[in-house]
Amino acid sequence: MVSRRKFFKQLLLTGAASLTAPILSRGEILSSHQPKVVPAFENGGLIVPKNNGLRITGTFLDEISHDIPHQNWGEKEWDQDFQNMKSIGIDTVIVIRSGYRKFITYPSPYLLKKGCYMPSVDLIDMYLRLADKYGMKFYFGLYDSGHYWDTGDMSQEVEDNKYVIDEVWKMYGKHKSFKGWYISTEISRKTKGCIPTFHTIGKQCKEVSGGLPVFISPWIDGKKAVMGTTKMTNDQAVSVEEHEREWNEIFDGIHDVVDACAFQDGHIDYDELDAFFSVNKKLADRYGMQCWTNAETFDRDMPIHFLPIKFDKLRLKLEAAKRCNYDKAITFEFSHFLSPQSSYVQAHHLFDRYKEYFNIR
Fold first, then answer.
1. How far from chain centre, in Å, is Cα 323?
2. Who is most buried in 59, 170, 266, 310, counting CB within 10 A?
3. For residue 106, what pLDDT is reported?
4. In sequence order, what are the residues at sequence separation of 6 or more whose Cβ sits closer than 8 angstroms to the Cβ of residue 295?
5. Does residue 199 contact residue 255 with C-beta atoms inside 8 Å?
């Protein structure tokens, strides 16, 4: 006769085997782009492999925006957020734009004369001091007049930034953290005048600063490129072949003055990531440019603009970037959508899920 202790021990072992076997067998037939299922009790609750994506090491700083709310932080809150960024490995901060229309981030002599509003705080000075303090690289994002969005004409961006680039380098170039430039004009395919505009601006940035790197962050004209419309999908989305042909022409015209390209990753569907990412990497390698990804931490799949993204969506994008051997992942943007002190409580939880996945203590 089997003792009660042995009976219950055998029952528990049999039950455990019946629970785990289906999960493991299902994992064995997943495609190569989908990780095998891992027993959750061995993996901190996750059933996918941890640390399988490209870590985010850079973020935009958005204090001049027209589509997400200001959090009205002072230097105390910003100092804490730089600490939060540093805690997950962020080493690069990028001002997404130093001004938009009449609102500006610093007391620009040129822009104030043009009628822009005087800011209450010199945000560029503050960001640079914090970047100095925490050993981060700072990229200066140029001025956006709004003229291009109104007319499609990029000439005003060249004219305004001709003065902005010079005065910013004179005012702030002494900071050890000032490591590069961001051309803030966001473009996509077939943008009229983009090649001469980017070349002129990028060339001036490099000449003024002794060759500091310049990068851009355009968008892919995919099925989710619907801003400014009432639609949820773009019925004239670009094909992978068209994307490669058009961006080959653009890269050919700007690669000598633009060092990196960080395509926004939110305009294509998740099952299209590898196809487009592979093309982006191939083009960047062809022209000797760095291939970054702008891993958006806000959700483009919802009718509400804009809320922090579901963790699995972010994970899929970062895993694709790693598979395609991207050089760096930056995000738009940490402080609103990933920070533990964001005004969005969902961002606090996204921060926790991100740390769990990447084994960050």
1. 17
2. 59
3. 98
4. 54, 56, 265, 314, 317, 318, 321, 329, 330, 331
5. no
Cβ neighbours of 28 (radius 10 Å)? 8
Q: Which residue is listed with tokens 């590069």?
A: 180
pLDDT at residue 29, as a whole number? 36
Name every residue whose Cβ is closer than 8 Å to that of residue 71 and which is 6 or more positions away in sequence: 77, 335, 336, 342, 343
DSSP 298: B
Pick the residue with more confidence: 193 or 356?
Answer: 356
Q: What is the dihedral of CA 54, 55, 60, 66, to 10 degrees?
A: 70
Question: Positive or negative, the Cα torsion across 193, 99, 200, 93?
Answer: negative
With beta carbons less than 8 A apart as the criterion, state whether 297 and 309 touch.
yes
334 neighbors 81 (Cβ within 8 angstroms) = yes
Single-letter amino acid, residue 327: D
Query: Do the beta carbons of residue 35 and residue 48 sit within 8 Å?
Result: yes
Q: Which two tokens stand for residue 295?
A: 């891993």
Enter the tokens of residue 275. 């196809």
pTM beyond 0.90: the answer is no
**What is the per-residue DSSP string for 210-260?**
TS--EEE--B---TT--TTSS-SS-TTPPPHHHHHHHHHHHHHHHTTT--E
Name, in order, each residue with C-beta under 8 angstroms of 222's C-beta and a sequence gap of 6 or more: 234, 237, 238, 267, 268, 269, 272, 276
Please give the Cα distance from 218 to 250 (Å, whole number): 11
b/e map 310-349, b = 16+ CB within 10 Å:
ebebbbbbbbbbbbbebbbbbbbbbbbbbbbebebebbee
**Are 288 and 255 spatial neighbours (Cβ–Cβ below 8 Å)?**
yes
| Cis peptide preceding 277, ω within 30 of 0 | no
3-class secondary structure, 294: strand
Confidence band, pLDDT 50/70/90 cuts, at residue 191:
confident
Largest CA distance in the chain: 96
The pLDDT value recorded for residue 259 is: 98
